[in-house]
Amino acid sequence: MARRKTRAAGPSDESLRIARTITYYQTCLDAAVPHETARELWAHDMTTPFEAGVHVSAAMARALELRARQEAAQP
What we know:
Shape: globular
Structural class: mainly alpha
Mean pLDDT: 84
């Protein structure tokens, strides 16, 4: 009998990294985001959740991380 692979409870680290990169591009390149904010987000390590910083508000970081997680959870 063949065994089926089951998906882990949540998205993998790699899918989250990719989703964060996609979210960055959608946010910064498709919208009119100030240059300083875009640079700070790009400097962010995409393997960790988005965080507030000098030019990134806590609300923006939470919204970006939520969008990335939703993107990563899509089949």
